Amino acid sequence: MKYKLSLLIQILILIAFLFLGNLKIVKAVENPLAKTNNLFGIHILNESDIKDAANLVNSSGGEWGYVTLVIRKDERDTTRWQKVFDELRRHKLIPIVRIATIQQDGGWEKPVLDETDGWVSFLNSLNWVIKNRYVIIGNEPNHAKEWGGEVKPEEYADYLSTLSRKLKEESGDFFVLPAGFDASTPNSDMGMSEATFLQQMVEYKKDIFSNIDGWTSHSYPNPNFSGSADAEGRGTLKTYEWELEYLKKLGLNKDLPVFITETGWAHNTEDVQNGYKATHTISSNLKWAFSEVWNDPKIVAITPFVLNYTTTPFDIFSWKKKNSDSFYDFYYEIQNIPKPKGQPLQITTGKLLFVFVPRILKTNNKDYGIGLFENSGQSIWDWDKFTQIKKEGETYEIKPFSILNNTEPGERSVVLYSKI
């Protein structure tokens, strides 16, 4: 009897040793193009638009499309944004987070270095949807209205380098992206050309791009957001190509994956008098762009601006109609394009909290046990299939007993588990 009790205790200790605690995960950004990637995305301004975004970018066979969203410094509420991330996770949407200050005098308050620790703490407090934590630092700083009424390339360079360094010191999973620029802005009292701005940044801080992992582009079809779909160069749908070539001239010696987080045509909002494109023209333009222009293997995501903004000044970009639950025809045109099932890496970890039955149940040449697990990772454990967990080169599989209920991060479930 003592021998059997001792053996049972040893088995329990062994199982606890194998499962207790989180898996050891290497903290480093993943190449988003290493596996199947669904580059379709959309820019959203409110979490209430998540379902409509998913119906667009994950339609026609797709999964794990992208959404670009903005978090202001006065919105750094972990509870709120964790709920948003959890909802994105359920809809298989990958967030690209652009951080912002607060609106001030018709523009935006200038960021200050003293705020960087607050951003790092907040962003690191969230359980992100996938392993790569995409963060865009700022927005169009070559516009004075985006930087407290001034254009200061040196100040933006300090802010970008400081915050990117601190984010990566906190977690190597932060995938840092610089602000997208307005490539069509000329030099003036209230703006600076992107070329001049970038040149002054590099002259001030030669290693400014050492801590960024990708390139953010606002590849709008100009002039007047009404340009040709097949035009090339600065101020077109291929602005990103001009930007990458210019960065090489400035000394950039690494290949950067591209995130087109703003693009799209202004439309006539069903009013032919405003001079913008008709919505049916935008439909054909976007279809052409996705198939013939943005088929570049360097592009990770394309998130046109904007899904739902039905008041001035951005109603001319909105994909949703004013005072309606329906959308303009280009929403449905893009919805009908076949899309791939993206395969982003998620951290899949679990904690064994209690053993009901050790791994002594045999079936199909495997030893199974029954235990209470907590989902401590990012992925959702499906109730109707096994989820694989890796630990130190060995693979285990678990399957929740909960009928019709998946196990989300932070939740607990009784599971069947086995070593593969």
Automatic annotation (TrEMBL):
InterPro entries recorded: GH (IPR017853), Glycosyl_Hydrolase_39 (IPR051923)
GO molecular function: hydrolase activity, hydrolyzing O-glycosyl compounds
Protein name (record): Glycoside hydrolase family 5 domain-containing protein
